[in-house]
C-alpha cells in the first residue's frame, strides 16, 4: 500500500484494514497523532486529509490511498513553524499537551478554509476535541491570534 | 529549618551540575504532569545561579539518578523541590563565586555575575561558571546557609517568560511515554476481567496465537495479555482474546440510586478534626448553643468522579539479565519501584524506574497499574522491550475514582447575622490508596490481584494528618467562635478510590462555600460582605475582593431574577497553600435548564510568584476541570459493572462550553511560593452553585448540576 504523508509517498507493508493512526505511529514513526479513545470521540488522533481535519483512530489506512495526509509533524515547513504552532507557543496553550496536536490540526483545517473565523466557528471547529487539563481558553486565544496574524497583509 | 527534600538528599551534586558546554542541569525527584514544574524549577535555578533560562536543563525523577522526593502530589512540588533547589543553587553560586574570586584575584563581593559570566569592575579578565567548574562535582552538602538572592533583585521570577517544551508539543515530537519506541519493541494489551471480582475460568487461545504478529499470549492466573509486533496487531489480538476467555464470579455493586443511602448507613470510623488535623479520640457531642437567632442545616453530595486523562495510561518495560527497567508516568518512581519489586518478589535493586512525561495526571490514575502490567510482560518476554497502553474502556473502568462524598453542615446565626456555631461532618471512602506495600500479601497494583497466587488490595486506613484526604479543607478559615468538624471514614468502597486532584477539598469546599451563601441569604447579607466579615486573614480578604472586582460583583435582588446570576466562593487550599477566590456569571437556559458559564474571574495569592503564566494556567485549568466535574461528571454503574466506559457515557466539558476567564494574580515578593494546582477546584463548584441560586432561587446541593437536576429542583 502507498500513502502520501507529509508530502512524501510512503510504501507500507501492513494489513490495509489497520487504522491509519497505527500506521502513522508504528510503521511511519510519526507519533504526533495520539491514541485517545479509538472511538472517534476525543479528537487526539486528528490529521489533515486533503486539507480537512479527520480522525485517524478508526478508519482503515486503505481508505486514505490517493489522498494527501498531513500530520502535526508536517505542519512546519523548512523548520519554520506554522502560524498556529507559533500562536500556541506564544499563548502557552498547553498543560500536558497530549490533545494539542489534534487541536492544532483542527484549527489548521479551519483557518485554511475560513481565514477570518467567528468565535462560534472556532468553537464549533474544536467542539469534538477534548482537553482534560482545561487549557481551552488559551487554545481559543491562540487560534484567534493565528487568524489575526494571517489576516495581516 | 532544612526542607525535607534536602534532609533526604543533602548532596549538592544530586541537585545540580554545571556543564562544560555552558549548560546547567538541575535534577528533581518530582515529575512533570503538565503542571509546568520543569519550567518553574528551571526559573528558580536560573535566578539563583544568575544564568539565563535557556541554559538550564531539567531532569525529572529516575530511581538511578537525582534526588528521591517520594511523590509529586498535594501541590507540594514548588515548596519541596523548589525550595530545596533554591538553597542548592545558592550554595553552588557561593562556592563558584569563591573560585572565581581566587582565579581573578578579586574579593568575591566585588564580582558581578551575568548569565554565568563573572567580572569585576575595572578588570579586563573574566571567567564563567562553565570555565571554572564545567563537568566537575561539588562534593559537598547543601548546608542551607548560603546567602539567598534578594527578591527585589529578581530578573526572572515573577515575570512572564516562555514555558519549556512548547515547541516539542506543537510539532508532535515524541515526548510522552505513549510515544516511546525502542528497537525490537513489542506492543502488548491486557484483557481485564469484565467484572472486578471475576476469575478467568476457561481460555482457548489457539486462534489468537495464530493471528498475524502475535508473539505471545501471557496468562498468570486471571491476568491475561497478548504481545504482538505492532500496536494494531496487539489491539486486534486482545479483542479476539477477550472473546476466547470465559470468566466466573459476579460482582455485586450497590444500585446507583442507593449509593448515598448506603454511605449514610455504613458504620464509619469517626474522628474529630481539630485545627485541620484528625484526632484519634471519641467525637465529642455537638449541641446547638442556646439563644441563637437562627439555625440552618443542609447536606451536600458529590458522586464518584474520574481523572479521565485524554491519553490512556502506558508504560514500557525491558528485562535484560534479570534487571528490569520501567519507563513510566507515575507520580512516584521510588515508591512504585518498591511496590513492583515487592509484587514480583525480587530485590529492589534489580528494578529501575525512569519517569517519562505522560498525559495529564490529576492524581492517582492508571499510571502505576500499567507500569506493573508492562513489568509482568517484560518478565515473561525477557530481552525485548514491551510497550503497554490501556484501552479507553479500561482507563475509564479501572482507574481509581475520586470518592463519592456526603457533607452535612449546620450553623447558627446570632441576631446580628454573625455565625456563632459551625458543624461540618464529612463522610467518604479513602482518597489515599496508592501502591505502597503494606504486607507480603497485599498490593495496590491491579494486575497483582489477578495473578496466581493473587495478592489482596491493601485495606485503606484513615489518614489523620493535617488536611490529609477526607477532611481536607473541612475546617474553614473563617473566624467562627465555635466549630465542630468531624471526619467519617468509610471502608468497603464499591470501587477502588484514591487521590483525585484536590481530594476531599473539592466536596468540602463546595459544601461549606455553598452553605456560607445560604447563611448570607438567611442573614440578609451580601455574600461577599458576609464572607469578609467572617475573615481576619488579610490575604484571604484580598483575593475575595480582587475576584469580585474583576467580575464586577453585584448581587441581584430576588425581584430581578432573569435566569442570569453571579456567585463567588473562596478557599485557601489545605488552609496552608494558595488563597483562591472564584467569581462567575452564568445563565440558565429557559427551555432546557442547561447551565451556561458566561464569565469567570479567578484571583489567587500563591506567595512569591515563580512563573506567572504557569500559575495562571494551573488556576484556569483547575477551574475548567472543576466546572466539568460540577456540571457534568458522575461515574455511572449497574449492579455488575461501571457503565461510564467512554466519553459518551462519561461526558466532560467541551470548547463550546468554556466561559471567558480572567485571572488576577496577587504577587507577594519574598513570601514562600506555594503550589496552586488544586486551589481553584473547590471554589469553582461553590461559585457555580451560588450563581445558580442567584439566577433562579434554586439551591443545588448534589453534584453534578445536569439539566435533569436543575429541572428536578425547579419542580421541588
Could you explain the architecture of this structure?
The complex is a heterodimer of chains A (153) and B (716). With 153 residues, chain A is α+β, with helices and mostly antiparallel strands. Chain A folds into two domains: 2-74, Ubiquitin-like (UB roll); 83-151, [2Fe-2S]-binding domain (DNA polymerase, domain 1). Chain A has helices at residues 20-27, 83-90, 100-113, 119-126, 136-151; strands at residues 2-5, 8-11, 46-49, 52-55, 68-70. Chain A has a five-stranded mixed sheet with strand order 2-1-5-3-4, covered by helices on one side. In chain A, strand 3 (46-49) and strand 4 form a beta hairpin. In chain A, helix 3 (100-113) runs parallel beside helix 5. The termini of chain A are far apart. With 716 residues, chain B is of the alpha+beta class. Chain B folds into three domains: 4-163, Aldehyde Oxidoreductase, domain 4; 177-250 and 307-398, Aldehyde Oxidoreductase, domain 4, CATH 3.30.365; 405-432 and 468-714, Aldehyde oxidase/xanthine dehydrogenase, molybdopterin binding domain (Aldehyde Oxidoreductase, domain 4, 2-Layer Sandwich). In chain B, strands 9-10-7-18-15-16-17 form a seven-stranded mixed sheet, sandwiched between helices. In chain B, helix 3 packs parallel to helix 4 (77-104) and helix 17 (612-631) packs across helix 18. The longest helix of chain B is centred in the N-terminal third of the chain and has 28 residues, at 77-104. Chain B is globular. Chains A and B meet through helix 1, helix 2, helix 3, helix 4 and helix 5 of A and helix 6, helix 8 and helix 17 of B.
Amino acid at each position: 500500500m502507498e500513502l502520501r504523508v507529509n508530502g512524501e509517498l510512503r510504501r507500507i507493508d501492513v494489513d490495509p484494514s489497520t487504522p491509519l493512526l497505527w500506521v502513522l505511529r508504528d510503521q511511519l514513526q510519526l507519533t504526533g497523532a495520539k491514541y485517545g479513545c479509538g472511538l472517534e470521540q476525543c479528537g487526539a488522533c486528528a490529521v489533515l486529509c486533503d486539507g480537512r481535519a479527520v480522525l485517524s483512530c478508526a478508519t482503515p489506512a486503505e481508505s486514505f490511498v490517493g489522498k494527501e495526509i498531513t500530520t502535526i509533524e508536517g505542519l512546519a515547513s523548512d523548520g519554520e513553524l506554522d502560524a498556529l504552532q507559533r500562536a500556541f507557543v506564544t499563548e502557552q496553550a498547553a498543560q500536558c499537551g497530549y490533545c494539542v496536536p489534534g487541536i492544532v490540526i483542527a484549527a489548521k483545517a479551519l483557518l485554511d478554509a475560513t481565514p477570518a473565523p467567528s468565535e462560534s466557528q472556532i468553537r464549533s471547529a474544536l467542539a469534538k476535541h477534548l482537553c482534560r487539563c482545561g487549557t481551552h481558553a488559551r487554545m481559543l486565544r491562540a487560534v484567534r491570534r493565528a487568524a489575526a496574524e494571517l489576516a495581516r497583509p | 529549618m532544612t526542607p525535607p527534600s534536602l534532609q533526604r538528599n543533602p548532596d549538592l551534586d544530586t541537585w545540580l551540575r554545571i556543564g562544560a558546554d555552558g549548560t546547567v542541569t538541575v535534577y528533581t525527584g518530582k515529575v512533570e504532569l503538565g503542571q509546568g514544574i520543569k519550567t518553574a524549577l528551571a526559573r528558580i535555578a536560573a535566578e539563583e545561579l544568575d544564568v539565563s533560562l535557556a541554559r538550564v536543563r531539567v531532569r525529572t525523577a529516575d530511581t538511578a539518578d537525582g534526588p528521591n522526593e517520594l511523590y509529586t502530589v498535594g501541590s507540594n512540588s514548588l515548596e519541596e523541590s523548589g525550595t530545596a533547589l533554591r538553597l542548592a543553587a545558592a550554595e553552588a553560586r557561593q562556592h563558584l563565586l569563591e573560585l572565581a574570586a581566587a582565579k581573578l584575584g578579586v574579593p568575591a563581593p566585588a564580582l558581578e555575575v551575568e548569565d554565568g559570566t563573572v567580572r569585576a569592575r575595572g578588570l579586563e579578565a573574566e571567567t564563567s561558571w562553565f570555565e571554572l567548574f564545567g563537568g566537575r562535582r561539588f562534593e559537598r552538602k547543601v548546608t542551607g546557609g548560603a546567602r539567598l538572592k534578594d527578591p527585589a533583585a529578581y530578573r526572572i521570577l515573577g515575570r512572564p517568560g516562555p514555558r519549556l517544551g512548547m515547541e516539542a508539543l506543537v510539532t508532535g515530537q515524541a515526548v510522552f511515554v505513549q510515544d516511546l519506541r525502542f528497537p525490537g519493541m513489542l506492543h502488548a494489551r491486557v484483557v481485564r476481567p469484565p467484572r472486578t471480582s471475576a476469575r478467568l475460568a476457561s481460555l482457548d487461545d489457539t486462534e489468537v496465537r495464530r493471528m498475524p504478529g502475535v508473539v505471545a499470549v501471557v496468562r498468570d492466573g486471571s491476568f491475561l495479555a497478548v504481545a504482538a509486533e505492532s500496536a494494531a496487531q496487539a489491539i486486534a489480538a486482545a479483542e479476539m482474546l477477550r472473546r476466547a476467555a470465559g470468566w466466573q464470579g459476579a460482582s455485586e455493586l450497590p444500585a446507583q440510586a442507593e449509593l448515598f443511602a448506603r454511605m449514610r448507613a455504613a458504620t464509619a470510623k469517626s474522628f474529630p478534626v481539630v485545627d485541620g488535623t484528625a484526632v484519634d479520640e471519641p467525637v465529642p457531642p455537638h449541641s446547638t448553643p442556646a439563644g441563637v437567632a437562627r439555625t440552618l442545616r443542609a447536606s451536600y453530595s458529590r458522586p464518584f468522579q474520574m481523572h479521565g486523562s485524554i491519553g490512556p495510561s502506558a508504560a514500557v518495560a525491558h528485562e535484560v539479565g534479570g534487571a528490569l527497567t520501567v519507563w513510566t508516568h507515575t507520580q512516584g518512581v521510588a515508591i512504585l519501584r518498591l511496590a513492583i519489586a515487592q509484587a514480583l518478589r525480587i530485590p529492589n535493586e534489580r528494578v529501575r524506574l525512569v519517569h517519562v512525561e505522560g498525559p495529564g495526571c490529576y492524581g492517582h490514575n492508571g499510571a502505576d497499574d500499567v507500569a506493573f502490567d508492562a513489568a509482568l510482560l517484560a518478565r515473561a518476554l525477557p530481552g525485548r522491550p514491551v510497550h503497554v497502553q490501556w484501552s479507553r474502556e479500561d482507563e475509564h473502568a479501572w482507574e481509581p475514582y475520586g470518592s463519592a462524598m456526603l457533607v452535612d453542615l449546620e450553623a447558627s446565626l446570632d441576631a446580628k447575622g454573625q455565625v456563632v456555631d459551625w458543624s461540618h461532618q464529612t463522610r467518604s471512602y479513602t482518597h489515599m490508596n496508592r501502591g505502597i506495600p503494606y504486607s507480603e500479601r497485599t498490593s495496590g497494583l491491579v494486575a497483582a490481584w489477578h495473578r496466581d497466587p493473587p495478592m489482596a488490595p491493601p485495606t485503606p486506613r484513615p489518614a489523620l494528618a493535617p488536611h490529609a484526604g477526607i477532611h481536607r479543607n473541612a475546617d474553614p478559615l473563617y473566624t467562627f467562635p465555635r466549630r465542630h468538624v468531624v471526619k467519617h471514614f468509610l471502608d468497603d468502597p464499591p470501587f477502588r478510590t484514591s487521590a483525585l486532584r484536590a481530594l476531599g477539598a473539592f466536596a468540602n469546599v463546595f459544601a461549606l462555600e455553598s452553605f456560607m451563601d445560604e447563611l448570607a441569604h438567611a442573614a440578609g447579607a451580601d455574600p461577599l460582605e458576609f464572607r469578609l466579615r467572617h475573615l481576619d486573614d488579610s490575604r484571604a480578604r484580598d483575593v475575595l475582593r480582587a475576584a469580585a472586582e474583576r467580575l464586577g460583583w453585584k448581587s441581584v435582588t430576588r425581584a430581578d431574577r432573569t435566569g442570569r446570576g453571579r456567585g463567588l466562593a473562596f478557599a485557601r487550599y489545605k488552609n496552608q497553600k494558595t488563597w483562591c477566590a472564584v467569581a462567575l456569571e452564568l445563565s440558565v437556559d429557559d427551555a432546557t435548564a442547561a447551565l451556561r458559564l458566561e464569565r469567570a474571574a479567578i484571583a489567587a495569592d500563591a506567595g512569591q510568584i515563580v512563573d506567572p503564566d504557569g500559575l495562571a494556567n494551573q488556576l484556569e485549568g483547575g477551574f475548567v476541570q472543576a466546572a466539568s466535574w460540577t456540571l457534568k461528571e458522575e461515574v455511572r454503574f449497574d449492579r455488575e459493572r461501571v457503565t461510564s466506559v467512554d466519553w459518551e457515557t462519561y461526558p466532560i466539558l467541551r470548547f463550546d462550553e468554556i466561559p471567558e476567564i480572567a485571572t488576577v494574580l496577587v504577587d507577594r515578593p519574598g513570601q514562600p511560593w506555594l503550589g496552586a494546582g488544586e486551589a481553584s477546584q473547590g471554589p469553582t463548584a461553590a461559585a457555580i452553585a451560588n450563581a445558580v441560586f442567584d439566577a433562579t432561587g434554586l439551591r443545588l446541593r448534589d453534584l453534578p448540576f445536569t439539566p435533569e437536576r436543575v429541572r428536578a429542583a425547579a419542580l421541588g
